Amino acid sequence: MNKDLIGLISGMMPRFSKGQKQIARYIVEHYDKAAFMTAAKLGQAVGVSESTVVRFAAELGFEGYPQLQRSLQELIRNRLTNVQRMEITGEQIGDGDLLERVLTMDIDKIRRTLEETSRSEFSSAVDALLNARTIYVLGIRSAASLASFIAFYFNHVFDNVKLITAASTSDVFEQLLKIREDDVLIGISFPRYSQRTVTAMKFVKERGAKVIALTDSSISPIAEYADVRLYARSDMASFVDSLVAPLSLINALIVAVGIKKRNEVSLAYAELERIWDKYGVYAKNDGSGSA
């Protein structure tokens, strides 16, 4: 319903009651703000009761107002500019204990990701990675940190992992030029979605390689080109992208493939420990407290 929600509301306008029409007009004109309002706040903004807002959601076919709110959030997620995100942040988080509020919101994202992640899709992603000739990892802008994290640990687990860097669109295609059917690409993108990631995943799909999408929902533009879809919640409206839940899902993926390749990984880390010790990669804490 997400893509047609505004059209649905506009089309149903004649049948709404007077109060519902006020709600409908506000949502159509200010959906970016309405998406982050509680039913009570939305009612207050348009001059109707909270119960009228709840009945309006039901009239649209939703089980309740929270479902309407989530539908609005998914609709506008990729449309919000950083300026709009900053404006909404104050309304969403408030002026209380910011540390507690932000961390609580992140905890909720991990909880919802756990509840909503398909176990069969997760298993399919693990199997695809274990059977790949080469694993390509692509994440641009804020998603680049997630891509680097995956590549760092996958290089300890697999023999052939390529992290795609994205200085330009042409650079991406040059690095993906040799991808083939027995390879896997992990594409990562969250709102606001990277067009270069979308284009690259379409290219890889056309080449016949396996595509794993790590994104936030089924309406994400990269989901269309994926064979396997892993969804993680990332819906803080702030100017800062919340990547806590995606990182947690990535941790689970790394652990899952590591357990499947337990013997090889143990041997690899035994060798790495010798190298790290020989060349002093990590600082040693002798307990003396000296600098």
Commentary on this structure:
With 291 residues, the chain is of the alpha/beta class. It is built from 13 helices and 5 strands. The protein has helices at residues 5-12, 18-34, 39-46, 50-59, 65-76, 82-93, 98-116, 119-130, 144-157, 169-175, 195-207, 244-260, 262-278; strands spanning 135-139, 161-164, 184-188, 210-215, 228-231. Strands 2-1-3-4-5 form a 5-stranded parallel β-sheet, sandwiched between helices. Helix 3 (39-46) packs across helix 4 (50-59) and helix 9 (144-157) runs parallel beside helix 12. The longest helix has 19 residues, at 98-116. It starts with a helix and ends in a 13-residue tail after the last helix. The mean pLDDT is 86.
Please supply descriptive tags for the structure shown above.
291 residues, alpha/beta, five-stranded parallel β-sheet, 5 strands
Content-based structural category:
alpha/beta
Largest sheet: 5 strands, parallel
Strand order of the largest sheet: 2-1-3-4-5
What sequence of helices (H) and strands (E) makes up the elements? HHHHHHHHEHEHEHEEHH
What is the gist of this entry?
The protein has 291 residues and is of the alpha/beta class. It contains 13 helices and five strands.
Topology:
Elements: H1 5-12, H2 18-34, H3 39-46, H4 50-59, H5 65-76, H6 82-93, H7 98-116, H8 119-130, E1 135-139, H9 144-157, E2 161-164, H10 169-175, E3 184-188, H11 195-207, E4 210-215, E5 228-231, H12 244-260, H13 262-278
Parallel strand pairs: 1-2, 1-3, 3-4, 4-5
